Amino acid sequence: MSLSKLAIACSVALGAMTLTLAPASFAATDAKEPAKAKAVKAKPKAKTTKAKAAVKEDHPLAMSVVDKEEADEPSTTGSASTDFNCELGNKITIYTNATDDKHIALRWKKRLHRLSRVGTTTGANRFENRLYGLVWIGIPAKGMLLDSKQGRQLANECKDAEQAKPAAVLEAAPSLGVLPVTGG
Predict the structure, then answer these.
(1) Which of 67, 72, 85, 161 can pair with 63 through a Cys bridge, CB separation 3.0 to 4.6 Å?
(2) To the nearest whole percent, how much of the chain has pLDDT over 90?
(3) Could you count the other beta carbons within 10 Å of the beta carbon of residue 49?
């Protein structure tokens, strides 16, 4: 038997299996059975996020309290906001609350995420949302947003207005032919 005949035989067998396993809504072509076809139609799925999946509280896969807090969109009332301009035109807004230094709210791509502080040995400000895999690292010179689930950077060289000022002064000085004065 040639290879082409074998491929044709396999495709015919696969087609026959598909017809025998087809749901009633596709197989019902009689004019007498339109009611059955309508009854078999699946209801459209409601829009849900993976974080808000319906899981019973006593179920072993139920979300912890921390996961529920990270899944819910945080409230920014009474919070101070800081806008960051990042490379490649990305923008991030961080909302901080003077009464809660353990959490921040971070706006990224039109979505607000709650991030919790993680201790570091370097002194950098590190905040994470483990549910979505977001990690914000802030150092005095810049900030960066990482995706820990995919292991990649989402935004780098993020600077607020205060962080961008010294860089603008240093960049302008060489173009004018003037060297910056340093103390010493």
Answers:
(1) 67
(2) 38
(3) 9
